[in-house]
Amino acid sequence: MIIHCKDLRVFQFSLSFSKEEDAKKIFQGIVHHCLEPKSLRCLFAFSYCENTSYPEVQRKKQTVMFDSVEDWIQDMKRTKGNCRVVSENSNFELSPKLPQFFIVPSNVSDEDLTKYQGKGLPMWCWSHHSGCALFKTASIPLVQEDNVPQTYMEKMLTAVAHNHLYSVKTEDLSDTLPAVQDILLSYNKFKQFFLIDNTTEFWMSDMKWFSSLDNCGWLDIIRQCLQKAVEVVECLEKENTNVLIMEEGGSDLCCVVSSLVQLMLDPYYRTLLGFQSLVQKEWVAGGHAFLDRSNHLHLKDKAESQSPVFLLFLECVWQLQQQHGPAFQFSETYLTVLSDSVHVPVFTTFLFNNDSHRDNILRAESPHTQRSPLNCPTVWDWSVQFDCKAQDLFTNPLYSEKPKQDTSVRKSYRPKHLRQLSLPSSAFKTPPKKGFFKDEADNLKKILGVKRLSRWMLSPSSESPQTSSSVREFYEAWQTKPLDYHGLLLPCLDGPSIRVWMQRYLRWIHDVQILGGGPVAMLSKVSEILGEVQELQRQLDRHGCTLTSNHKGARPRAKTASVIAARSSVRLSSSFPFVTSRNWLFKPAIPTSLLQSLMVTGMAGNLADREDDGGGPESLV
Amino acid sequence: MENTGSIDSLGSKRSSSRQPSVDSLSSTSTSRSDWSTHAAKPTFAMSSDNVSISTEFSPELRVLRDSKEEPQLLPKESVQDMAKDVTYICPYIGALRGTLTVTNYRLFFKCMDREPAFVLDLPLGVVSRVEKIGGASSRGEVSYGLVCKDIRNLRFAHKQMEDSLRKSIFEILMKFAFPVSNGLTIFAFEYGQVYPENGWKVYDAQVEYKRQGLPNESWRITKVNDHYELCDTYPSTLVVPVNIPDEELKRVAAFRAKGRIPVLSWIHPESQATVIRCSQPMVGVNGKRSKDDEKYLQTIMDANAQSHKLFIFDARPSVNAAANKMKGGGYESEDAYQNAELVFLDIHNIHVMRESLRKLKEVVYPNIKESHWFSNLESTHWLEHIKLILAGALRIADKVESGKTSVVVHCSDGWDRTVQLTSLAMLMLDGHYRTIRGFQVLLEKEWLSFGHRFQLRIGHGDKNHTDADRSPVFLQFIDCVWQMTRQFLAAFEFNEYFLITILDHLYSCLFGTFMCNSEQQRVKEELPKKTVSLWAYINSQPEEFTNPLYVNYSNHVLFPVVSMRHLELWVGYYIRWNPRMRPQEPVHQRYKELLAKRAELQKRVEELQREVNNRSASSSSERAGSPTRSITPVQTFV
């Protein structure tokens, strides 16, 4: 019996020595619980929650959940946006497809909210410090001949444009990025390279590794998403125009792109809590159909809506993180663990399709009817899955924290940045110059006459060759400036820069584990030094020396030390912390497909030995 | 800091900077914090007369004065020609107009139109070929293409000389780029910089063998090759089995190609298993045998009590090895050599490697093709070759370490693939070679003294760029080392910049280290007397080349994973001319900050400790302590 897991583990059990009935039972049990269609109720989360009394208190102090008006107002204030917070949908009276709370441009009227079940309604994502903002929307299918949806769309666009400078760019992601089905197809091909259960097969596939990577197209999809995000960033940062991204459902690639844009522009989202809030805001509250996309229920009719869109997002984040390590507070391990957690049907975070869905189910499932809805843990409560020590591995020891004089730096820094980019210094309150405004408005009206709204662009970015060269210029201009980990981050998109997420994909494959090597070797050394720095600081403290904020930076980050220091880094492999080889043997993995002669010359014995070497996978620490 | 003025054109890759550093593409005034400190230093005299007496070899000063159009010259470097209004056609920026200077060492182009000024500074040794492209254009310009050994091509254009008697600057360039072909001396023989250390003393065969515990009861050091009579491509000092007298060595030499007999390269400190290197046996079509050679290998096996087997690794693919029989060579038959097991490692010859690098250059220079990057990379087979070499070395190291078996490694002549394999295996087995000095010893020993033919493989100063003897064998080795450093981030004392610097000076012809083909030739040319060693330069500023993450794993064997999944194209070397691929600030920078913080805190703790001691001492013995002074330094610091 061979089990292929979603986190790319492959288990092989021999049932030849067990009774046939037992074997059948086990097999059926697994199939029943894993592969057969079932209702949401059967998921483990509900039996889990019923049997666990779970204290609600802690979660709020950490991640912003975006499940209250205050959260939204606060986030808008943080980014200095000035849009309208809509709370009329708190009981899903407007539309069950809309989130409980959301923000729209201030010019959107009440009656506009309910038309088309929320389709076409520009939802605020994030405001740039210049005042322009990013919006996303589900596009309205333009099927009918009548002009109603189109006039509505025009109205919405005008509303967006009013937000800042009377400018707006739209970007229809359905046209420019691969469809969710293609994403799934590509991922399924890609995944196969790692679901390898024997050494021979592994080394055989090694020869064609690079071309197979190209052929499956997964890395290319990642590149496209990042590129699209950079284009949007360019509009916001360089041209200071509002951007409205749209796609059919408004909650797949829109989520990918909008979250990436925010990660690149806003250092807050590169902290651990900030990142979790971002996922809450864009994905959970934003109505990404986690249930359908990950198909927890194994429903046949939902099979085609399955797609690893969230994973795609995490992949993009990983690429950014690889290129700009110190800018991120969370580690690679964190992303890997998060990507695994999507498949753990315990957390409310990834179980539902949208807010109202969650609300309905949790209420209905509540053991005390008419009382509070069922209380399930969110994935952000990591203590459900991991102990403290393991959680320490989530932080990046090399994170360069923002200097303490936070606010002052920000203020003085930002305008400077503006100047560097030679932007129209249009900061927050732009007194509208009449002539300028009029031109724009005329222009707008003229363009609005064009039939296909999705093509309505002020920039030439719909034609790909021009786009890539413009993006390239933007990147190069950014690259020549000194790097600021708390400012704008852009990814390099050239061939060699987009890589395979080794930790996630190779961690279970024994043949590619680097014993005594891999990033953990560096991590442990860094942690060791951090530990020493800490210790020295403590000594200084003991001597009654007051320390200023200068040195505080190192403190919270030194936690990793305790985890790794206990083990000699020599004994850790590149798959740390996911696999620790218990009977650690010093035997290199020698490629077998190199030569046929290898097998002849007595390597067979060596091969047979190797099967035993891989210590059973242990979970984190 | 950086390095001598000439060099930083090559050493564009600096671990500490994210910004373009000074090289062909970038400009001089990139303000880097670490340079500003040097700006305070007095600039020394700029005229070439004065420079030679300057003992200063910090390089960055030249870079700071960007008002001049000429380069800062090295000792004994002199300007040969200078031309204004030359156009450099940069593949990234576009056409640039500026002044081109050719010295007996370098090509220097500077464009003042841009802010900051654009500088291209490369040693002529890097140039592999100069060609005139097409005839004069409509604007009366002629253009020249320079193909370089370090994965780039340069294109210049300038006005046709009206005075046809005067030589064009590119003719001058050709003369000095290929001094050997033009009867001139290579610049390394003129360069007279004095460094605090004599780099030629880094490697002493006796000392190195002593470090390995040699001679011992089974192995002796022989002087039979003292005058290079046994084998002219081997070093004078050789380690051979105790039981084999010199007379017998001569008979073994007769059976081995070019007389390159099996000798010891490395011995395991515990198991006494050895790494032996040699050339192919002269078996020929008729399957000739040599009793002496058979006995010799048996003795080598016997010297290791742990194993009753001997592994012979033939680096070649078996087909090629068999084909060599036609030329009188071949491989050991297992009938003739009892208890020996022959393994072919399938590594291709120098011609295949050269072709592979040519393809790689096409793929990465000047621009990376947007689509199908990985397929294009795969089609060059470069990483596949790297994988095979590493896999071979891994198997050797595994046999020695895990199998406690002695191994014999050879290819055809034992100076290309053999040395790649033995030196990589030694790097895996022996932590000493992973230090900066240890690595220098490894290169001096395995590559230089055992006669890797650098002169032929690189073609120093030779205009014959199609020479079939040229091949990137050494580059491949350094690439393999880099792959290992990628997998074991903390196991090597040196950093990427160290490896790049070595490769740059492989071509630069500034140092004598990589001149000539063998130890014998180096002695004859009196290289240690007439030239400076690269190691003198490197060891004068080791901090530049040190990996801050280094943990001394000295007793630890490294087994890299040789799967394609872990091999990567060395972007920092092969694609370094592309400004888009410049690395972001690496982790090391951040780490260095931490180290600095630790040092600073340590100092403070020590100070405090001392004061505490002082105070307690003073309070107990009533000596005159000064409590006022004790606190202040710390507080001012804060």
Strand order of the largest sheet of chain B: 4-3-2-1-7-6-5
Radius of gyration computed on alpha carbons of chain B: 27 Å
Q: First CA to last CA of chain B: what distance?
A: 29 Å
For this structure, the quaternary state is: heterodimer
Average per-residue pLDDT of chain B, rounded, comes to 83
Largest sheet of chain B: 7 strands, antiparallel
Major sheet attributes of chain A: 4 strands, mixed
Instruction: Provide the gyration radius of chain A in Å.
Output: 26 Å
The dominant shape of chain A is globular
**How many β-strand runs of chain B?**
14
Number of helices of chain A: 25
For the largest interface in this structure, which chains are involved and how many residues does each contribute?
Answer: A-B, 79 and 74 residues
Distance between the first and last residues' Cα of chain A: 28 Å
Mean pLDDT of chain A: 73
Q: Please, could you describe this protein's structure?
A:
The complex is a heterodimer of chains A (621) and B (638). In chain A, 45% of the residues lie in helices and 5% in strands. Chain A is built from 25 helices and 8 strands. In chain A, helix 11 (218-239) packs across helix 21 (464-479) and helix 15 packs antiparallel against helix 16 (332-341). Chain A is mainly α. In chain A, the strands form 3 sheets. Chain A has a 4-stranded mixed β-sheet, sandwiched between helices. A two-stranded antiparallel sheet of chain A has the order 1-2. In chain A, strands 3-4 form a two-stranded antiparallel ribbon. Chain B is α+β, with helices and mostly antiparallel strands and 638 residues long. In chain B, 36% of the residues lie in helices and 14% in strands. Chain B is built from 22 helices and 14 strands. In chain B, helix 9 (350-364) packs antiparallel against helix 10, helix 11 packs across helix 15 and helix 12 (417-429) packs parallel to helix 15. Chain B starts with 32 loop residues before the first helix and ends with a helix. Classes of the chains: A mainly alpha (621), B alpha+beta (638). The interface between A and B is large, with 79 and 74 residues.
